[in-house]
Amino acid sequence: MSSNAPRHTALDALHRSLGATMTDFAGWDMPLRYGSERDEHLAVRTKAGLFDLSHMGEITVTGPEAAALLNHALVGNIATIGTGRARYTMICQEDGGILDDLIVYRLADHEYMVVANASNAQVVLDALTERAAGFDAVVRDDRDAYALIAVQGPESPGILKAVTDADLDGLKYYAGLPGTVAGVPALIARTGYTGEDGFELFVAPADAEKVWQALTDAGTPAGLVPCGLSCRDTLRLEAGMPLYGHELTTSLTPFDAGLGRVVKFEKDGDFVGRAALEAAAARAEQNPPRVLVGLIAEGRRVPRAGYAVVAGGEVVGEITSGAPSPTLGKPVAMAYVDAAHAAPGTAGVGVDIRGTHEPYEVVALPFYKRQK
Hints:
This protein is α+β, with helices and mostly antiparallel strands. Helix content is 20%, strand content 33%. The protein has helices at residues 12-17, 37-46, 66-73, 121-131, 156-161, 208-219, 229-238, 274-286; strands at residues 7-8, 21-25, 28-33, 48-52, 57-62, 86-92, 98-108, 111-116, 138-141, 147-152, 176-181, 184-189, 198-203, 224-226, 291-297, 308-311, 314-325, 330-337, 349-353, 356-363.
């Protein structure tokens, strides 16, 4: 297959039959939207949405030293993850720059699944393979072994209960357990990227259509709709969740991104990037870098990634993500802004939108937090 031909998920024909608008995303043909992205967004906030996330990259790490390898390769303390639990973490370069943000699931004593972003899956696989040298552990590319389907939103527990006998009530946030969904084996994880309660289901690609259809049948009476990448982006933006390539890049350390909490200096053994990250932590304490903040528009114009944030005629920051917020009814953005202008309520901050300085309110992230 030529490297520029898009990859297709196991649900490709189904998306097309549903009239999805498809788009290239990290080399995959993915559904952007099925109908109205605003309706899809609001369905997830109030009822439920169904997503195909099969473009994500699964990498399995097994062996007696799997935990030691991951502790060396990643910034988090992977050895302390309990079996059946998951953790958000990052993989950094030697210079501390973020290669990707990841979720790591501990499936068994000596078995972990690392889930990477589609755009970075190969980079993460290569880095883990290289960093595995000298460890009694095996890094396996499992990208073709899984389809990934997410059901997200307040109605999602009830919908999933209709098609599984797994104990969902006992499944905590950031936990995963093997079970059966619609009669097929699945890893059921209580994770998501929407700011709502929900589940991510790792299944064999051959079983993906069956699982999607069963969830559709169970969920339609509760208001579940299929959802594309477009509303996934506005949902995660409202929830203040970073997107690699926007809020996270190789030119930023986790401390620059305000996510220094994921770096665990107290863990056993050395890890890749430790020295650079210790320096970054010290810098952040003495002289805070630009801070990731939320911006809410006073007008209707939508800021886009790369637009300058301005105050008093000076550039004081840069937009990383921006979109109309269906929940707030106004355009919102995330931006890295100089510490002097980052406090919520800071006056006189604007965004340069094609030469006009549009007024924006600085707010703390997230824009939206669900009521538990």
